[in-house]
Amino acid sequence: MKQAGDITLHPAYSCWMNFKTYQKSADQSIKKYCRFILTKISSRVVNTAVNELSAAIEGIYHIKPREISENHDVPCIELSIEENNSADSNQVCGFTIKHINEKTTDKIVISGTDECAVLYGVFRFIFSLGLGKSIDNIQTEQKTYNRLRMINQWDNLSGDIERGYSGRSIFYENGKITKNYARIRDYARLLSSVGINHIVLNNVNVHEEETKFITDKYLPELKKIAAVFSDFGIRILLSVNFAAPIVLGRLSTADPLDKDVQRFWHETANKIYSYIPDFAGFLVKADSESSPGPYTYGRDHAQGANMLADALRPHGGIVVWRCFVYNCHADWRNRKLDRAKAAYENFVPLDGRFKDNVVLQIKNGPMDFQIREPVNPLFGSLEKTNQVIEFQITQEYTGHQIDLCFLPSLWKESLDFDTAAKGKNSLVRDVVNGKLFHTSTGGIAGVSNIGDSPAWTGNPLAQANLFGFGRLSWDPALSCEDIASEWATLTFGSNVATVEKITNMLLRSREIYEDYTCPLGIGWFVNPDSHYGPNVDGYEYSHWGTYHYADLKGIGVDRTMATGTGFTGQYKNENAQMYEHIESCPENLLLFFHHMPYDFVLKSGLTILQHIYDRHFRGVEEVVELQKIWDSLQDEIDPDIFQEVRHRFELQLKNAIEWRDVVNTYFYRKTGIPDEKGRYIYP
Ligand code: GCW
Known about the structure:
This protein is α/β, with parallel strands linked by helices. It is 34% helix and 12% strand. The protein has three domains: 12-143, Chitobiase, domain 2 (2-Layer Sandwich); 148-478, TIM Barrel (Alpha-Beta Barrel), CATH 3.20.20; 484-557 and 595-683, Alpha-d-glucuronidase, C-terminal Domain (Alpha-Beta Complex), CATH 3.90.1330.
């Protein structure tokens, strides 16, 4: 029974599945099918599907459907598994929603390739109601693009979330695993509704106590959480500490070639599977930002990953191994050093050496989740290795869920990038799903943006990023426009003007954020540690120089083969040439690839310096516009959500003004070149 003060009553809690909102949009032509749910399948996930469907029908049409297992020739919704495919374990997950109307039969059939697909079909059907589809346009057939559609929680046992901006963890509290199953269940439901099928439950930085997650101390509790996710077709993984054999006090080494170490991991895997039979595997951050790894023992990452893969193989588990490995920063004394080159240098030589149950997890860009980066050149360069692309849904460098920043715009750029690895149309999305190089598995991973805040994501508008991540991981060919407007309709109702305004705000937001922060692909103007707010020279790794090399005359990193770090050479021919030359380098990445004089004239006719000034002014003006649009929606939006978002826009404006003033003043002082329009800020 829900009590006043119950967080589930918060208007933003139900996210894109608020059935009160759906009531207004739902078409009456579907109502007559909703009295009966026909299914002959009995399984946990299909039971979930039936329950979800019933709850939605009740919430939307105020009918309590009856579950039947025989066809009584009454209009109904039937759930079934497509017979031909159910035995084929390699079958790509997919579903169809059909309206069958012939002789005595008039029904809607939702059928899937397996039980999880039935659940996805049901959620899609529920979305269709929120989108106002009628019986005439409800039919659809969908197959997922990616086998792995994975969320990474960066949650710690303390209840903190690394780079989390939405409150505390829903999984952990004060050094304990919570029993917050109702909330965890609601999270599983949200994730499953957009097609997520894997979740990593703990931070990739595995601290001492979390290292024990793979022991009897924590597995009984983790098993319960796994069961909650399992009902929604989501399998769990754990981040593990490569040095666990030592940290847990069993051995004096974690050398992957050591027999005792191998035995340790085999026994550990056996134990985990005895608790959690559908456990999906390990996520590993090794030799990175002080995490231990195989390099300590003179071994390479293939040896490290394969050792774990061997332990998991008998149980069908996988090792997801991160490529975020680097050992240098910017250095004014040696400008040939380049962190951007590190992932490629560490992993390309290992291509073909990873076992087939190893998947490399590669950040979308070569640096670290900046507002604009080129695609990581590892994509297209690894031909014999399973891969997933890693995105950050949480807004570490993109506004901490205070500032509005719709990230599918950024993710789409990576997914649609043509690596040219096998001629034209060698898109990143086809590399990671395995199609381009015929690798066995792959997909998309995203670092979660949720916590225990009533709206899940702090800023209710940041829910669009979680939704968009799920939708893109299911189908990366979707457009940002479709994702944004679908989310806006499901969340705020089908009023066309409202949906248009919100869609428009979302679609503009990434560029606006870029305008008042880091121009032309340069990145790294942020405050150290927090990574929010401006500090042009202050980044934490700036002892030997900043990542932008701004001096009196110019700014940017020369990453060319001709005179710079040679990073451009990590791309395939056409792309290498495109980035190598100033004329063909996309302007929005110019300073990522080239050190340029401030008076270089861009295509707009403006100098780089003028561009920096103008964009920072424009960014602030655009935030004011966003605010105005939001204010115009006051009568359309729930008052609590309205105020919450309004408050965030006030903070965003403050932030944007600070960015504008700090960045523009910095460059004015640095260059002494007067701005032609006199539009700089000077104390
Ligand atoms: O961007 C950096 C973050 C770290 C994070 C690391 C990583 C989990 O600042 O907080 O650690 O990336 O991705 O491993």
